[in-house]
Write a structure and sequence with these properties.
163 residues, alpha+beta, Pnp Oxidase, Chain A
Length: 163
């Protein structure tokens, strides 16, 4: 059990290595779009992104409310390119309007993390804040080391069983 506890620790720490995430969205017509966005994460593993309304992924998020998020180990750091450490989440996406109680504290966190660029873009009307709520996911540490994110407790994992 000690080994599995270490896996959970690595899972919980893994997103801390990143400043941006890969996004996979699709339009209402099913046309896929790959992109990325700088992010924040809270204790419940909700992910926050502040993105331009002029981008395709913003339109997709607003149309479908769904997104897949990928954190993936840098190629330069991996020992085996076929087994890069990675974490994926299937998320529900919700816009957080500027007049909500959450907006200003989150923008302050974005500014603290990413610097003065946030001060420049926070006044632009096309930029929108989204909350991405993980519903399911998978953490892969290498060959034969894949785990499902516990749907009842996103902070936990369960061993992935082969069907």
């Amino acid at each position: 059990m000690a080994d599995f506890n270490r896996v959970i620790e690595r899972y919980q720490e893994f997103p801390e290595k990143f400043r941006s995430i890969m996004l996979s969205t699709a339009s209402a017509d099913g046309i896929p779009q790959a992109s990325y966005a700088p992010f924040l994460m809270d204790a419940d593993r909700n992910i926050y992104i502040y993105i331009s309304g002029l981008s395709a992924h913003t339109a997709n998020l607003k149309q479908t409310g769904r997104v897949s998020v990928l954190f993936i180990e840098d190629e330069a750091e991996t020992k085996e390119i076929f087994a890069r450490r990675r974490l994926t989440y299937e998320c529900v996406a919700n816009v957080l309007p500027r007049d909500t109680a959450q907006w200003q504290p989150l923008i302050n966190r974005f500014e603290a993390r990413f610097g003065q660029v946030i001060g420049l873009i926070k006044g632009l009307p096309d930029f929108q804040l989204f909350q991405l709520q993980p519903q399911a996911g998978q953490f892969v540490m290498g060959f034969g080391a894949a785990y499902r994110v516990d749907a009842n407790d996103i902070n936990n994992l369960e061993p992935r069983r082969q069907n």
